[in-house]
Amino acid sequence: MGAVIRTEAADMPDGSALKTPDRLRRRASRLLSQLTMRSDRLITEGLARADAHKWHYAVLASLQEYGPGSQAELSKRSGIYRSDMVSVLNELAERDLVERAPDPDDRRRNIITISAQGRRHLRLLDKVLDDLHDELLAPLSPAERDQFVQLLTRLLDHHTRSS
To answer: Is the torsion defined by CA of 149, 150, 154, 155 positive or negative?
Structure first.
């Protein structure tokens, strides 16, 4: 079996070497997949410049919005696999962005809390992500951006409930 060529028309310098067939450009699943790859790259590289990862942001945002929680609760809230949560929390704790304390009701588990430094870092990451999203959604007006996010949310909610 031959190698898969991962070049897309949008990746070509002038777009003339490859043309994406119309039937592919009309497929929402393909468009979402292509945009997801570009979005993930943009966000990952942008957060790396701020010495952060998307999982750092997810944990800090969860702690800020919902308050302290156990590792299991944070895993459910953030979508991070439980097996990966320990390493994410270790990274955040090493930077003094979160604090761990034994759960008074169950000494076998820890309760994780965002620190003051973690709240400051989260505000910085919010600004970084705002700028990255402006770049990602540049061709859309503010009203179109709001509508786009609402539509994506509706689709995700629908498919999350049905799975």
So the answer is: negative
How far apart are the C-alpha atoms of 2 and 117, rounded to whole Å?
51
Residue 79 φ/ψ region, left for φ over 0, alpha for ψ in the -120 to 50 degree band, beta for the rest: left
For residue 10, give Cα distances in angstroms to 5, 14, 34, 40.
14, 9, 10, 16
Residue 5: φ, ψ to 5° = -90, 125
Sheet order of strands, 69-70 included? 69-70, 106-114, 98-103
> Whole-prediction pTM value?
0.81
Three-state SS string across 69-125, please? EEHHHHHHHHCCCHHHHHHHHHHHHHCCCEEEEEECCEEEEEEEEECHHHHHHHHHH
Judge whether 92 and 78 are in contact, CB under 8 Å: no
Residue 140 Rama label (left phi>0; alpha psi -120 to 50; beta):
beta
Token readout for 102 is 């034994």
Measured on CA atoms in the order 63, 78, 49, 91, is the torsion positive or negative? positive
14-70 per-position pLDDT tens digit: 555 578 888 888 899 999 999 999 999 999 999 999 999 999 999 999 999 999 999
